[in-house]
């Protein structure tokens, strides 16, 4: 059974269509959504969003850098802060971002700065993991 | 009377200027289309964000996020959006005037500014206003990440209790010939009521981790999105204004060329007449002497 899914980021709409299954990285861990899932509203952590148009096949891989997932009986929406298709990820710039974040975290920081760079680090690492998984 | 040659030289120089303004007009028209597409692209996210926010705030009614609390004080920070470049008519002047007037009227105790765009920054600094952050030289299609630092500074001021409200001023795009300077109150945030009643009772959400955290996450993003949209819309307004300004300049150059051409012809004619008179009177003098 299919349900309508929409993935939008501030800058553009990334996906719109009927799907059977998605796996997202929620605040409390990975979660899968099938049709007739209970209504849910969750914060997303930086990580992959896997979209399967038919269950177990045709998987599309997206990177979502945090945001929200809303599950309603009639539709599912992902509001992403940043999002890109897996093939758009630049490994070089992700590695660069990770290196910068690690450097900053090695120094002394205020707590606000620390959360900021932890976030940046988590984003960079999620991007890299995703890019590698796609290749390997 | 100036020499004929000098007037022709002036006409040529104006023709060159006219070519430039004409080119700028065409460029502005192209960029306007691109800017409008960028504004359109943010709509799905913004609409969806508002919808989710409405649903969540209806459910978490007893929780008051600091952004929703109205403070009594008369201190505010204004996020002022202007352009980086000039030659765009009165758009910047209008934005700055509207923003500063609103601020001195509504928030007499203290006014601070965060500027997005070079023109606003330069103006406010010249008049020694308190500019606490600025972002300039934004590309035509900026990313959210480039606009974000300015918003973050404004929100921090509010969180620290240094100001009681956060405002936004930009040129709202109404049509190619009309842009309106608009002030919006970002904080205390007003979540607009739903336009139509949702049909039937809706199933309640399961919140992960909890409604408060979700609202905590949503509200700053709502504010950020509004500013981001304002920047894009201001770009569209900028190019509309520039297009019209350049069109007017091109027309004015045309009028000037016409009147100068007429004047040049008169000067040329006057020259010919004078020469003829000289010849005729010369010939008459010759005859008289014979």
Structure description:
- The complex is a heterodimer of chains A (136) and B (290).
- Chain A is α+β, with helices and mostly antiparallel strands and 136 residues long.
- Chain A is built from 2 helices and 8 strands; from the N terminus they run ββββββββαα.
- Chain A has helices spanning 91-106, 111-135; strands at residues 3-9, 13-19, 21-26, 29-34, 40-54, 57-71, 76-80, 83-85.
- In chain A, strands 1, 2, 3, 4, 5, 6, 7 and 8 form an 8-stranded mixed β-sheet that branches.
- Chain B is of the alpha/beta class.
- In chain B, 61% of the residues lie in helices and 15% in strands.
- Chain B has helices spanning 4-59, 91-106, 118-126, 144-160, 211-289; strands at residues 75-81, 110-116, 130-135, 165-175, 178-187, 206-208.
- In chain B, strand 2 (110-116), helix 3 and strand 3 (130-135) form a beta-alpha-beta unit.
- In chain B, helix 1 (4-59) runs antiparallel to helix 5 and helix 4 (144-160) packs across helix 5 (211-289).
- The model of chain B has no long low-confidence stretch (mean pLDDT 88).
- Classes of the chains: A alpha+beta (136), B alpha/beta (290).
- Chain A binds chain B through residues 6, 8-13, 26-28, 38-43, 68, 70, 72-73, 77, 79, 81-82, and chain B through 41-42, 44-46, 48-49, 52, 55-56, 143-145, 202-209, 211, 213-214, 217-218, 221, 224-225, 228.
- Strand 5 (40-54) of chain A pairs parallel with strand 6 (206-208) of chain B, so a sheet runs across the interface.
